């Protein structure tokens, strides 16, 4: 019986679709043909062990089906999920599609009712859903979390986390299912808003806990905010966290404090902005935190992925956590207690600090003075944007994009208005001091940052990276090329013109023994929108919203 | 000298920008050029580039005032005064090279938002502070805030009754509804038992032959659950309000009076809310 079930699952037979559970995601390596959670595994490595498509044969990779969502505003930023032959994707404006992962045939769709009010500042896009217990979970543009029946797409529950008209915040990141809870963050870091991370009971939608990213009166850390600034201090949680089942800790990145560039009215370190927080998923209680940037005045989020790595370091086996900060440094911490291990620069153009010392303290801060424009590198778009890196256990290297660009920043005194934008300054993109403005994708030693190879490109690379067991590194560029590099050398092995720039997260999966590589395509997003300031021709890069799926010919 | 001063003030001296443009630049940088929107001086962001493009003034007034449907461009009529909208349009026209700005007043009527009526004074002006009551009603840090379930003056949750039109009720009645919610049922609560044995108590939102949508009020914020009728094994009307008890203890008497004063006050335009 067990063997028959196994055969059905491998066969991707829809009838054999098993309920996705947190336990299955913990043991995701037992079913490499699936991609059950945002980064496939809870450690956020974005590595698929599949190796049918590999260095030797990738030049024969061809498109086998595509799917157009029809909603191109803001491009396509999602991360597809695949469970037993069914794929789940999203487009802008909170549209969800369930597709046959082998053929692209639509099984159902769910279009969230267009809200009367959305948080315009944070865009109409969506980065994907979470699966668990027969349900599909999605955060919405008006700050709701909805649960859909995974078989039919019908809404099961819907909870309004906070009124969008009041908070000016929304949800664009994918939720994370951990045990019997679904955990989700929120945008709002550039608005007068107090951030949080919430967990809900998967079955009923009842709120299980809330972790305020800014401590309230009487809580430890509250003293790091002067006056009433804690009420409007940002601290968003807009991307998706990671989970270590052995330590029973969820790791979530917290974004910048608001106002972004003006810090005089929020004197103090401003905890837990620009921090990794480690939470007990059962209670939401804080176990440890590590603040990368006390009192940020540059809009450097710590919101991106936390990659969990078990590596040898100075002769010891260590449980580590790697996080790319928007300011262009990569941080490595011990994930058992948060202790700082190392930090290394991802980009060449960095001038907001002179460096980071051995304890993780910032040295030589270059803070923008009020009313006086100063050159800050990198730009607000980041030394890297949110698009994720990948780790290959085969090479032991971390693969990530980086961007060389600068900006002039003029800080401005600003009073908060609840739920309204709260930047405290403005910026204009500028070419960098060293070299030409542009992007790159590199392979790095995750702890020391030693560069193994680098692939350079004339524009920022804004799509996530996928590493595979076939020795491939896959991503796409703003001109619409989806391509594969050799994980060992960085040599380009294959490329396909999809017709619109890439801003989403590629994945790999298998159905009936055939490996597929899927990527969202469709140009757009906030950072893409800034690019014409440096590269005028990119203003006319056409948008799109199409999922492409590739495989070797049968 | 006095004449020169007047001319400078009017922005008519050669080499000086009109006052509307100066004002418009300030408004632009805090409303349009922020963050990822149109960029500093309209140099492009997620929103379109404005610099170097030609626009019709009436078109800009309309777009800024009303926003653009099915896009991220919001309506600014509730956030900016008519004069500021006119000023920001004058400034955008200077970016686009479509000519000098016109006086701020011209055409402003077209963009004139409906002026909110002045706040009516509470029946008893000493009973409480509407502003303090508003802050309590919408206090984002309080999970039991009224707005988790109730809307008032265009904001807040949908599960409970909208509390916008309370001005005609007596302060005593409103106070009683807050501290003794069980005394009066404004909506009909239901208890459902499902096939899986779950018991759900809450307020019905909609119902058709196939399903029922119910606000599950077991926790806050309330959850809108969709329950298919073939999953319901029993259904009963409750006699008790699902509103949590204990607001008489959660708030001081002063705060309760503030809430009453807020509920009795007239709407305030969103742009005026701090």
Oligomeric state as shown: heterodimer
Largest sheet of chain B: 5 strands, antiparallel
Low-confidence stretches of chain A: 1-13
Q: How big is the Rg of chain A? A: 22 Å
- State the helix count of chain A: 4
Strand order, sheet with most strands of chain B: 6-5-4-3-7
Helicity range of chain A? under 10%
Q: What sort of overall outline of chain A do the alpha carbons produce when their principal axes are compared?
A: globular
**Terminus-to-terminus distance of chain B:** 41 Å
In angstroms, what separates the terminal alpha carbons of chain A? Answer: 30 Å
Biggest β-sheet description of chain A: 5 strands, mixed
Rg value of chain B: 26 Å
Which sequence of SSEs, written as H and E, runs from N to C of chain B?
A: HHHHHHEEHEEEEEHH
Q: What structural class is derived from the secondary structure elements of chain B?
A: alpha+beta
Can you give a write-up of this model?
- The complex is a heterodimer of chains A (554) and B (274).
- With 554 residues, chain A is mainly beta.
- Chain A contains four helices and 38 strands.
- In chain A, strands 1-32-33-34-35 form a five-stranded mixed β-sheet, with no helix packed on it. A four-stranded antiparallel β-sheet of chain A has the order 2-38-37-36, with no helix packed on it.
- Chain A is globular and about 65 Å long.
- Chain A starts with a helix and ends with a strand.
- The N terminus of chain A is likely disordered.
- Chain B has nine helices and seven strands, in the order ααααααββαβββββαα.
- Chain B is elongated and about 70 Å long.
- The two termini of chain B are 41 Å apart.
- β10 of chain A pairs antiparallel with β6 of chain B.
Give me the secondary-structure topology.
The complex is a heterodimer of chains A (554) and B (274).
Chain A: H1 2-10, H2 22-26, E1 47-48, E2 62-68, E3 81-83, E4 86-91, E5 95-100, E6 106-111, E7 130-132, E8 135-139, E9 144-149, E10 155-160, H3 164-167, E11 176-178, E12 181-184, E13 196-201, E14 207-212, E15 242-244, E16 249-253, E17 275-279, E18 286-291, E19 306-313, E20 316-324, E21 329-334, E22 340-345, E23 355-356, E24 362-363, E25 374-376, E26 390-392, E27 397-404, E28 406-411, E29 425-430, E30 438-444, E31 451-457, E32 466-468, E33 472-476, E34 481-486, E35 492-497, E36 507-511, E37 514-521, H4 526-530, E38 546-551
Parallel strand pairs in A: 1-32
Antiparallel strand pairs in A: 2-38, 3-4, 4-5, 5-6, 7-8, 8-9, 9-10, 11-12, 12-13, 13-14, 15-16, 16-17, 17-18, 19-20, 20-21, 21-22, 23-24, 25-28, 26-27, 27-30, 28-29, 30-31, 32-33, 33-34, 34-35, 36-37, 37-38
Chain B: H1 2-10, H2 19-31, H3 57-66, H4 82-96, H5 108-111, H6 130-137, E1 151-152, E2 155-156, H7 171-179, E3 189-194, E4 199-207, E5 211-216, E6 223-228, E7 232-237, H8 247-250, H9 253-264
Antiparallel strand pairs in B: 1-2, 3-4, 3-7, 4-5, 5-6
Helix pairs in contact in B: 2-4, 3-4, 6-9, 7-9
